[in-house]
């Protein structure tokens, strides 16, 4: 089974010469040479498109404050709260990995500045059929506007390729029984903090039934180890762990399928980095287990 999955992933991403990093992420070389000005320019232009930016995460500043002074400049422009977000996520919770969006602005060792955006089509190919036409168009329109901003700031146009839906689920999800939504949410936040997946914020997508929340969790030690080598992964940062009320009264909780990422990007990850991913996966699963009282 494992060999079949690896073969499938290879065919999925490498057919027609596709590199999985280039399929999943679009990275633009920015013309601006000053890092903070580049971040401000991209943020301002995104907002001028009518896309709300929730916050800018100064990840490299936080990592350097821990003593890693050589960590390269790395900020995440986090936002994209579109009017359709609630209806989209209630139908397809997994899309919380692309709505809200994250645009990563990062600097390489040679001083060049880049902006990276995830390819929404990878998720829409798998889960877009849960949405109506208008909702799918809303996601594509928002990402189209983001690509237009980054093309303008780089002078380079990149196309978000459309790919067939992967057979593997893009998220790992559990069902929690025996606890009310609000009770589980409170316990889960405490549990995440307890495993050092520090909760930066909770986005309340829907505060009325069916309720839906996105926990923005972060472990700077993991981020420092991974983002320095593969900055593109920051488009999924902070780690989004979603919770929602299911129709049967139970609670759904899920996050990006880390084993899927490991198998897809295995050639880019040394074993020590892969182990960090595995540890993060174990931490979140442990927090879910603790919150449900097991």
TrEMBL record:
CDD domains cross-referenced by the UniProt entry: DUF302
Xref: Gene3D superfamilies: TT1751-like domain
Official protein name in the record: DUF302 domain-containing protein
Residues of the DUF302 domain: 59-118, 207-257
Organism: Thermocrinis ruber
Superkingdom of source: Bacteria
Pfam families reported for this sequence: DUF302
Listed transmembrane segments: none
InterPro entries: DUF302, TT1751-like_sf
